[in-house]
Design goal:
With 97 residues, the protein is mainly α. It has one domain: Tetratricopeptide repeat domain (Serine Threonine Protein Phosphatase 5, Tetratricopeptide repeat). α4 runs antiparallel to α5.
Length: 97
């Protein structure tokens, strides 16, 4: 809450130690999303490369890609997220405005 830069620095420190540390990568992507959606989508894609069962990362990837005009890839990512965790159907897309 108002300390995004400090949080990002902490996530970067964790990722410097372990570049595959999914919680840090995912949480950093959420923080980056508002300012740089394409970068956040790339981070979410890294998350699912590391953990192909991370439903929330597939969902965030899908929402981001839809917003970026990449409908087919976005829908595929959302479908995968819903396959992994059907309760994700209740998740609302983040606002990217």
């Amino acid at each position: 809450m108002g300390q995004e830069a400090k949080a990002i620095a902490s996530y970067d420190a964790a990722l410097a130690t372990d570049p595959d540390y999914v919680p840090a990568l995912f949480n950093k992507a959420i923080l980056v999303e508002a300012d740089d959606l394409p970068e956040a989508v790339e981070m979410y894609r890294e998350v699912v490369e590391i953990d192909d069962q991370h439903a929330a990362a597939f969902m965030r990837t899908g929402f981001g890609l839809l917003h970026l005009g990449q409908a087919a890839d976005g829908e595929a990512a959302l479908e995968k997220g819903l396959q992994l965790d059907p309760s994700m159907a209740q998740v609302e897309a983040p606002s990217h405005d």
